[in-house]
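Reopening this one. Same input as before:
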Amino acid sequence: MLPLRDMNPTRRFPVLTYVLIAINILVFLWELTLPPAALEAALMDLSVVPANVSRNLFSLETTLDILRSMFFHAGWAHLLGNLLYLYLFGDNVEDRLGRVLYLVLYFGSGFAAALAQVVIDPTSPIVLVGASGAIAGVLGSYLALFPGVRVRGIVPLFYIGMWSEWPAWLVIGLWFVMQLLSGFASLGVETGGGVAFFAHIGGFVLGIILTWILMLVVPQPPPDYRREVLYERTRRYPYG
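Same output, byte for byte:
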């Protein structure tokens, strides 16, 4: 399924989710201004290269490389795919955890993702870029927080798309299974298809674990707050 909407209202405007989306777009637009050779050099110098990280793991430069790599993308499809998932699932995670802990989750998952890929392929000279690992952590958090929420999207069937509605645990769970299968299939393949599947896996797993830990300190919302928000929206916009 290609998820396009979840039935999960928020109590607050997701400021940080939109800020992260905007930064990713601005950085990608900057990438488009560079000639191919200059862009390749910039990515090699400013992003994660596993062969370099594994030789100099505990350094400020490695930390900055991992941080910067979360905002670079390899193309429009890479960017838009990531931002779709961040837009769809990030608002509820930000709303539930609060802004500070949401950033802890996002960047913590991004770091875990990069390190997971380095551990799997420590000699790789291929640059790792993208917010996929951080957003995988957001997906893991969403699964831990809202497993039963309904998600609407398009399921491809015989070259056409059909609207369908599945629970979040199924949508995100299938996504994770695909990452696992693709990741293990990529082992031993020189390029791995250009996708850092174990970065996705690492970010996702940390997102779940970190959410379980954070929930010990985050106050529980009123049990019926989603019903109240839905009622208020329906009252204001009865035909929307």
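So the earlier flakiness isn't reproducible anymore. For the record, The mean pLDDT is 87.
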